[in-house]
Design a protein that fits this description.
The chain has 222 residues and is mostly helical. It has one domain.
Length: 222
């Protein structure tokens, strides 16, 4: 039970800074400007559901896809650490999570009354490459066999993803209130603080991947 709880807490700690539900509030407000409140609430629920489905799907089948293409889990950890580190660097420097092109397309979708729940809110904003890479890294941590322990670890990570989805829904659902309480500068400052934390997670993923890679080559003993 302790291991299950550790995986839940570890999954939340690893994913929350990368997904950054609170930091996505200003963008969500911009994309839903002029949209009725009830439609904004439906968007919040659909976005949270999309992110959960995407990350749980990655958790369950991502490893099999990688094995099919001959990519080791150690390499995934290293790549995921690099992506997470880059995302943290951008967060600490207050770079926007959407590029100018993505922002223009998003605004155009809203103007045309098209659904923004998947593009761009789910991908690339909340469930982007960083979140997918971290999920694959967590799947690697869960184990590579078909034992009961591995299944429980995967269930714990899925529970963590579900809680992240709940945090996304609550953040976007109360987006107007959060913006009033924290202000744009407060949300930006919180994103920077989360950036430092997620940078450390990225470095740890890289080190874990390098350690596994050296063990697989026989350079060091496990």
């Amino acid at each position: 039970m302790r291991v299950f709880f550790d995986f839940v807490v570890g999954g939340i700690a690893a994913l929350f800074p990368v997904v950054d539900p609170i930091g996505s509030v200003p963008i969500f407000l911009v994309l839903t400007t002029g949209i009725p409140a009830d439609l904004r609430r439906r968007y919040a629920l659909r976005i949270a559901r999309n992110v959960v489905v995407l990350l749980v799907g990655t958790l369950l089948v991502g490893g099999s896809v990688l094995r099919f293409f001959g990519v080791s889990l150690a390499v995934v950890r290293i790549a995921g650490g690099i992506v997470v580190f880059h995302a943290a660097w951008r967060a600490m420097n207050s770079d926007p999570k959407l590029t100018n092109v993505d922002s223009q397309e998003a605004v155009q979708r809203v103007d045309e009354h098209k659904d923004i729940a998947f593009m761009p809110m789910t991908i690339p904003l909340l469930g982007g490459p960083g979140a997918i890479a971290v999920t694959l890294g967590l799947a690697a941590q869960a184990g590579g066999d078909f034992s009961v322990a591995t299944a429980l670890n995967l269930l714990a990570i899925a529970a963590a993803i579900g809680l992240i989805g709940l945090a996304i829904f609550l953040s976007l659902r109360s987006s107007t209130l959060l913006l009033k309480v924290l202000g744009a500068s407060g949300i930006q400052a919180m994103s920077r603080l989360l950036g430092l934390f997620v940078m450390a997670i990225g470095v740890q993923l890289i080190l874990n991947g390098l350690a596994d890679w050296m063990v697989s080559l026989g350079w060091v003993t496990p």
